[in-house]
């Protein structure tokens, strides 16, 4: 009889939980990020950033502090810190900090120093990092999210709420935190129940077919110190179905790019939980291996039927069929839809999303696609210590050509 990894984990969690309100189980996606963090000698979080630029002196640190505290009350996962209880990985929900949660600093002289300010966050301020960096030229709002807590969809939700609370500050009663904690626990428990159900024979047979011919992974398979990433940019004009729904086309392009390089591992991407809408901390992390038949556009729809299968079960399926792939990832894909989330407006002044280079490359290659109307901006970040620049350029070129061809085919 197959015993799912999720069921085994929940059994161990039940032995250490003992009714403690502050201890939450980890979802399958969170377990993957927790494992990645545990292998980092410095125990560093993987940071999802949002950078917003406003005119100098526009932002009020006091109003921003009030807004951030309201967001923290409504989304307990943002106060969560990965921990272990009796040797079992858990998410410990800390109370709202007594000290300020927003740090106001003079803008650092370099991009790397700004990243260091986000990464070296004071212990006790939780996983939600809000930094207001000022100089005579601009106010830069830098928000860092622990990827164990948030996917890209969650960062957009939190930013919307933060800006709304900044405009209309309101005192949140203590009952809000209690209700939010119950809501988060219920959402996580529902997701874990789905993950257990999605770990049966049919799902594992599906994922086995996906990973059977996948490569073992080409870049960064051994331990190494992540270095600041190098970035390559491309802009692509979309048309046809891709202009309305670019994700399948981008995913297909990523697959096509990796398939041209021998021994590369599958693509990974996150997907919002089915019942977790509006609940920060609930998302799915899945993979796309090399499909043998109809291509990515069709096989991706099949994958959605088994999207709740947690990452560790997909790795287990690979080992069971003696595939070369062992769980390493060469490329991770994220897509941000700016058509639904334009830059916020404060005091009648629209902010500007900016990109600050210099962050550590957590995966060998990260493809970030920003969808804005008929234009798609591609940023391919890679770790130059493990991925040759020529390989990153080839991936970028293949992506651009694939997306251009998909638009021509649609016409």
Plain-language structure description:
This protein has 411 residues and is an alpha+beta fold. The protein has helices at residues 5-17, 28-38, 61-74, 111-119, 152-167, 174-197, 201-211, 241-244, 247-259, 296-304, 311-320, 389-410; strands spanning 23-24, 47-54, 80-85, 88-93, 102-106, 128-134, 139-146, 230-237, 267-272, 283-288, 331-337, 345-346, 349-350, 352-353, 365-372, 375-382. Strands 8-16-15-11-9-10 form a six-stranded mixed sheet. A five-stranded mixed sheet has the order 5-6-7-2-14. Strands 1-4-3 form a three-stranded antiparallel sheet. Strand 5 (102-106), helix 4 and strand 6 form a beta-alpha-beta unit. The protein is globular, with a radius of gyration of 21 Å.
Rg (C-alpha, Å): 21 Å
Q: Point out poorly predicted stretches.
A: none
Helix content: 25-40%
State the secondary-structure class.
alpha+beta
What would the keywords be for this entry?
411 residues; alpha+beta; six-stranded mixed β-sheet; five-stranded mixed β-sheet
Architecture blueprint of SSEs:
Layout lengths: L4 H13 L5 E2 L3 H11 L8 E8 L6 H14 L5 E6 L2 E6 L8 E5 L4 H9 L8 E7 L4 E8 L5 H16 L6 H24 L3 H11 L18 E8 L3 H4 L2 H13 L7 E6 L10 E6 L7 H9 L6 H10 L10 E7 L7 E2 L2 E2 L1 E2 L11 E8 L2 E8 L6 H22 L1
Helix pairs in contact: 3-5, 7-11, 9-12
In brief:
The protein has 411 residues and is an alpha+beta fold. 38% of the residues lie in helices and 22% in strands. The strands form four sheets. Strands 8-16-15-11-9-10 form a six-stranded mixed β-sheet. It has a five-stranded mixed β-sheet with strand order 5-6-7-2-14. Strands 1-4-3 form a three-stranded antiparallel β-sheet.
């Amino acid at each position: 009889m197959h015993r799912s990894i999720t069921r085994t984990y929940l059994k161990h969690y039940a032995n250490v939980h003992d009714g403690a309100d502050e201890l939450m189980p980890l979802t399958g996606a969170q377990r993957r990020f927790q494992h990645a963090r545990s292998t980092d000698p410095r125990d560093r979080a993987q940071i999802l950033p949002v950078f917003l630029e406003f005119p100098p002196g526009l932002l009020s640190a006091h109003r921003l502090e009030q807004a951030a505290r309201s967001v923290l009350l409504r989304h307990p996962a943002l106060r969560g810190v990965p921990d272990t209880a009796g040797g079992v990985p858990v998410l410990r929900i800390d109370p709202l900090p007594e000290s300020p949660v927003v740090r106001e600093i003079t803008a650092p002289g370099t991009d790397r120093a700004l990243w260091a300010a986000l990464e070296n966050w004071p212990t006790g301020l939780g996983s939600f990092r809000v930094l207001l960096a000022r100089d005579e030229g601009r106010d830069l709002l830098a928000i860092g999210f622990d990827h164990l807590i948030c996917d890209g969809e969650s960062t957009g939700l939190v930013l919307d709420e933060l800006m709304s609370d900044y405009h209309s500050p309101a005192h949140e009663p203590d009952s809000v935190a209690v209700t939010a904690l119950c809501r988060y626990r219920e959402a996580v428990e529902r997701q874990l129940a789905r993950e257990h159900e999605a770990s049966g024979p049919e799902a594992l047979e599906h994922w086995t077919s996906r990973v059977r011919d996948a490569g073992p992974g080409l870049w960064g398979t051994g331990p190494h110190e992540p270095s600041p990433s190098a970035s390559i940019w491309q802009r692509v004009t979309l048309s046809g179905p891709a202009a309305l729904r670019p994700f399948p086309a981008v995913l297909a392009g990523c697959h096509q790019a990796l398939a041209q390089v021998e021994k590369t591992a599958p693509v990974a991407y996150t997907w919002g939980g089915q019942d977790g809408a509006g609940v920060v901390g609930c998302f799915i992390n899945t993979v796309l291996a090399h499909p043998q038949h109809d291509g990515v556009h069709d096989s991706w729809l099949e994958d959605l039927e088994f999207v709740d299968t947690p990452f560790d079960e997909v790795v287990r399926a690979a080992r069971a069929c003696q595939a070369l792939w062992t769980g390493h990832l060469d490329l991770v894909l994220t897509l941000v839809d700016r058509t639904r989330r334009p830059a916020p407006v404060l005091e009648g002044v629209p902010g500007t999303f900016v990109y600050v280079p210099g962050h550590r490359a957590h995966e060998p290659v990260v493809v970030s696609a920003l969808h804005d109307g008929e234009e798609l901006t591609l940023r391919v970040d890679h770790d130059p210590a493990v991925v040759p620049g020529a390989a990153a350029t080839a991936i970028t070129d293949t992506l651009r050509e694939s997306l251009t061809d998909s638009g021509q085919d649609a016409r």
